[in-house]
Amino acid sequence: MGEQMNIKAKESLGMIVLSLMLLLVTGCTGVQAEPASPAKASKIVCSAAYRASTSMPIEREESITFEDAAAQQTMSFGELDLHANYWTGKGDGERSVQLWVSEAGGGDPLISQLYQLPLDSGPQNQFVGGHGFTGLNYVYHPTSGAELQFWCQAE
């Protein structure tokens, strides 16, 4: 009888060890490698849509494109201007896109955003609806209520 209990105890211990080994193997195989960085964009396209009032439909939509060269561009709409700077990072190691909106003709920025990018990859379009790596942004003229929507995509 005592020998029979030893056999059952050994079988139970064997099942416990087997279960622990399966958990260990399953846990190790669940580890995922980090995803690869997205390739460096050959172009960055920034788009804007303007309307004089939120009660009106979009009046105008335009885009500007940046290749891999430092540049600044401006899109002027009714009462608001969208300014965009692209820096390659060559020389100072700080690749970025800076966007800001001002009242038409200049003045202080109503909003300013800086997107810092890796030198050799990305950015990665992450927002649905075609709103690229910046998402869809809204800016309103302080007195007239004119609206400017803008976003940038990597291509």
Fold and architecture overview:
By secondary structure, this protein is an alpha+beta fold. Helix content is 18%, strand content 39%. Strands 2-1-8-7 form a 4-stranded antiparallel sheet, with no helix packed on it. The protein has a 4-stranded antiparallel sheet with strand order 3-4-5-6, with no helix packed on it. Mean pLDDT is 87; it is low at 22-26.
Structural key phrases:
155 residues; alpha+beta; 8 strands; 18% helix
* Total number of beta strands: 8
Order of helices and strands: HEEEEEEEE
* End-to-end distance: 76 Å
Largest sheet: 4 strands, antiparallel
Radius of gyration: 28 Å
Major β-sheet strand ordering: 2-1-8-7
Care to give the gist of this entry?
With 155 residues, the protein is an alpha+beta fold. It is built from one helix and eight strands; from the N terminus they run αββββββββ.
Summarize the helices and strands and which ones pair or pack.
Blueprint: H1 2-29, E1 44-51, E2 60-66, E3 71-77, E4 80-87, E5 95-103, E6 109-117, E7 137-140, E8 147-154
